[in-house]
Amino acid sequence: MSASENVANPANPADAAAAGEIVPDTKDWTWVLERPCPDCGLDTPGVVREDVAGMIRVNAEGWLTVLAGDEEGLRRRPEPGVWSDLEYACHVRDVFRLFLVRLNLMLDGEDPLFPNWDQDETAVAERYGEQLPGVVAGELAEAAEALAGAFERVAGEQWRRTGNRSDGARFTVESFARYLIHDPVHHLVDVTGERV
User: What are the CB-based long-range contacts (under 8 Å, 24+) for 188-191?
Assistant: First the structure.
């Protein structure tokens, strides 16, 4: 379902889908740092780190186009266990927010351990499917611009600073930038069907 992270969710995917719940994503998506994604088409290893800020802004524009659509359609799930377009947009907004926090941890601290984040739990707790598309659009645009601006300010040796997830995944700011951009790109493809 998602191309970011879910550190621990014990739910049985088959049971979740049968109950109309979102199927938790428990995959480790760090493999996108080693090879292109066959699903969305993004060649993540080939992304130039300095291009990530611009890619975030372009991606956000795509989400704003999606969120300008029919509200009823935005709320409709294509299948019971798959997020609606609105839920995906809320997730991307929150990914932008989370990655800004993590980027700042890497730039301001020494080899920080990131706090865990359960994306599926957040979607339920924050009622993604009930949020207002216009509000989400504004928040997503703001979060994207904040993150893009933060990446634009990274320079020199800062690209080599490190941070860690609790599952053992270790990033430099450079690999973190590449890993980040895959998530919103992948999800825009999930929603629009238009591969990069």
Answer: 188/59, 188/62, 188/63, 188/66, 188/92, 189/39, 189/40, 189/41, 190/40, 190/88, 191/66, 191/85, 191/88, 191/89
User: Can you tell me the distance from the alpha carbon of 96 to that of 148, in angstroms, rounded to the nearest whole number?
Assistant: 9
DSSP letter (8 states) at residue 170: E
What residues form DSSP beta bridges with 168?
Answer: none
Residue 183: in which H helix or E strand, if any? helix 173-192
Q: Pick left, alpha or beta for residue 193 (phi over 0 → left; psi -120 to 50 → alpha; otherwise beta).
A: left
SS3 37: coil
pLDDT in tens, 75-94: 999 998 899 999 999 999 99
Q: How many CB atoms lie within 10 A of CB 166?
A: 12
pLDDT band at 9 (very low <50, low <70, confident <90, very high): very low
Please, where are the H alpha helices in 68-84? 71-75
Average pLDDT, rounded, for the chain: 91
